[in-house]
Amino acid sequence: FETEQLLRLLEGVTGSLIVSGDFNDEPAGSAYKLMLTKFDDAWLQSKAKGTGFSFPADKPVKRIDYIFCRTSDRIRVKKAWIVNTLASDHLPVMAEVEIR
Questions:
Q1: What are the C-alpha distances in Å from 23 to residues 64, 78, 99?
Q2: Please, are residues 54 and 62 in contact by the beta-carbon 8 Å criterion?
Q3: 16-27 as b/e, with b when 16 or more CB fall inside 10 Å?
Q4: Which of these, 81, 77, 85, 84, lies nearest to 93 by C-alpha position?
Q5: What CA–CA distance (Å, rounded) separates 25 from 69?
Q6: What is the 3-state secondary structure (H, E, C) of 53-94?
Q7: Which of 26, 51, 92, 95 can bridge 80 by disulfide, Cβ–Cβ 3.0-4.6 Å?
Q8: Tell me: the pLDDT tens digits for 42-88?
Q9: Could you tell me which residues are beta bridge partners of residue 22?
Q10: CA angle centred on 93, ends 90 and 69, rounded to 5°
Q11: Can you tell me the mean pLDDT for 16-24?
């Protein structure tokens, strides 16, 4: 339900759009799949190595944190990676993007 609301809210946003955060949903889940109707997953688009697991930070076993780039925009994800730190209960997901 929250993902549907988010997508409706973002419909009127002009310019290049990147959405990131903890979606509390793994790639097989409905929220993730709904995001893919309008956005690309930066991790997949970059062909990053590894699982992308970011939770929990001390022993990551889940991929629930994402960077999404709107598919209709001219955004190219050059690379994506996970930062190994215990500064939070999640590991940071990072991406280098190029807006064309």
A1: 6, 22, 24
A2: yes
A3: ebbbeeebebee
A4: 81
A5: 17
A6: CCECCCCCCECCEEEEEECCCCEEEEEEEECCCCCCCCCCEE
A7: 95
A8: 999 999 999 999 999 999 999 999 999 999 999 999 999 999 999 99
A9: 65
A10: 130
A11: 97
